[in-house]
Amino acid sequence: MMAERNSPLEKAVSLPASLLEAQRLLRDSVADVGIQISGGLGTDRALPLDDLFVNLTLLSKTELTTLFDEENSFSTLRDRDHNLSVFAAAARSRRDAATAPCGMKLEDLFTSSADRVAVRNVLAFGSAGSGKTTVFLKMLVYLWCMGRLWPGMFDLVVAVELREAEVQAASSLSELLAVKLKSLDLEEGELLEVARYFRANPSRLCLVLDGLDECRFTSCSKYMRDLLLRKGNTGSAVIVSSRPCPDAHKLSQCGNYQQHIQVLGFSAENVDEYVRKAVGGERAEALLAKLREKPHLYALMATPMFAALACELFVSGEDVAKCSTALYESVLLRVVERAGGDACKSFEDGKPRHVQALCELGRFAFRMLAIKKLVFCESDLKSSELSEEARHLGLLLACKGGSSTTVRQYRFSHLSL
Predict the structure, then answer these.
(1) Is the pLDDT score of 139 beyond 60?
(2) CA-to-CA distance for 174 and 181, rounded, in angstroms?
(3) Residue 239 to residues 93, 269, 302, 340: CA-CA distances in angstroms?
(4) For the chain, what is the largest distance between any 2 Cα atoms, rounded to a whole number of angstroms?
(5) CA 54 to chain centre
(6) Which of 40-44, 199-203, 326-330 has the lowest mean pLDDT?
(7) Is the dihedral of CA 144, 146, 148, 152 positive or negative?
(8) Distance of CA 99 to the CA centre of its chain
(9) What's the whole-model pTM score?
């Protein structure tokens, strides 16, 4: 069974029923969903996507170079002093949001770039907690599904996480699409039909590849490396998100990307509006007054992840007007409480029973970061002598291995942890 598509860009062509089913499943998965913009870090303060904010700016070549230079300096400082990235990055997000030279709208991502080159490939950069995944990428998929973004341009917009082993190991378009569409219960035969359709009509597909900084480029399959570098470009549109990192720098220099953008944090106006929506009434004004008394804390609200957690802490009776270290402790304890479930429900003097297990996990994280490992195998956990309590705090998640391996792998629920 086939259906007709009326596109302003092309003549009407027939869409296979399997693609219509994929569109329906994707639309159902995002409809009426509030985004927990803490990026999986445990906040309950979910807001509808329509109530969130995306601030983007177009990067010139000079600004792109500056971005990587700053990130290299920041990484050196962080490694030396063990600064907490989400707090340090928040100040930079606020500065970037305040000084951005020009704004860019989501609908303009694929318009002609400054040098009048047609845009099919976009690199999106953002610091820790700036909202690359849980605001920017989820919002564009949501808006496309609702028919409010790029109408008639694409027949499918699919987002996958590059840190997933299955994505890194994908050796064909069918395998890559399967990572997302199988999770939506699309049948195997339908999946193959969808892949065949896009091999014949590649310009109708937009692939959103999230988190280049969370995968090891050299460990990806040849298909995925070529896809990320846009070698042998098949015509599909691609959006890749990343924190500034060496692999992202390589893509910006060697990959066939016509547009480079930066995802910025909340502006001051965004912060005020977000707090009023998330907290509401007089309590919202009381929180804003407290934050304005502490400029360094108010600046942290530029990070969407932190803004969500701060609102939840305030609503639950926490004092948010404290020093950064104490506030971070409150944030982390809330994360553990939410993520750990039954294992972390009992508190004594404001601290969970399993503080020792949490410290074990922290030491493990530092050791893995030192060797640049973001995905771990069982041998990593055993060599670090992680206790069962540390494994089951809810912060270390098991993830599927790629098609070429049966080894169970693990990752933290969010890289900012």
Answers:
(1) yes
(2) 10
(3) 21, 28, 24, 33
(4) 67
(5) 13
(6) 40-44
(7) positive
(8) 23
(9) 0.76
Mean of the per-residue pLDDT values for the chain?
75
Using an 8 Å Cβ cutoff, are 181 and 191 in contact? yes
Q: Is 282 helix (H, G, I), strand (E, B) or coil?
A: helix
Do 3 and 13 meet the contact criterion of CB atoms below 8 Å apart?
Answer: no
* Of 28, 7, 16, 26, the residue nearest 199 (C-alpha): 16
Alpha-carbon dihedral angle through residues 281, 51, 288, 262, given to the nearest 10 degrees? 180
Q: What is the pLDDT of residues 245-254, one digit of tens each?
A: 888 888 888 8
Burial of 239 (C-beta count, 10 Å sphere; 0-12/13-18/19+) = buried
Q: Is 399 exposed, middle or buried (0-12, 13-18, 19+ CB in 10 A)?
A: middle
Residue 198 scores a pLDDT above 70: yes
pLDDT digits (tens, 9 = 90+) for 76-101: 333 333 333 444 444 444 444 444 44
Q: Which of 263, 168, 258, 178 is nearest to 212 (CA)?
A: 168
pLDDT interval class at 277 (50, 70, 90):
confident
Q: How many Cα atoms occupy the beta-carbon half-sphere of 113 within 13 Å?
A: 17
Alpha-carbon distance of 416 to 355, in angstroms, equals: 19
Strands 121-125 and 237-242: what pairing? parallel
CB neighbourhood size of 11 (10 A): 7
User: Residue 79 corresponds to which tokens in the numbers above?
Assistant: 């490694």
Please give the C-alpha separations between residue 181 and each of 204, 294, 321, 379, in angstroms, as whole numbers.
Answer: 17, 46, 44, 31
Q: What is the pLDDT of residue 22?
A: 93
Instruction: Compute the distance between CA of residue 355 and CA of residue 335 in angstroms, rounded to an integer.
Output: 13
Does pLDDT of 160 surpass 60? yes
DSSP H helical segments within 82-154, as ranges?
A: 85-99, 138-145
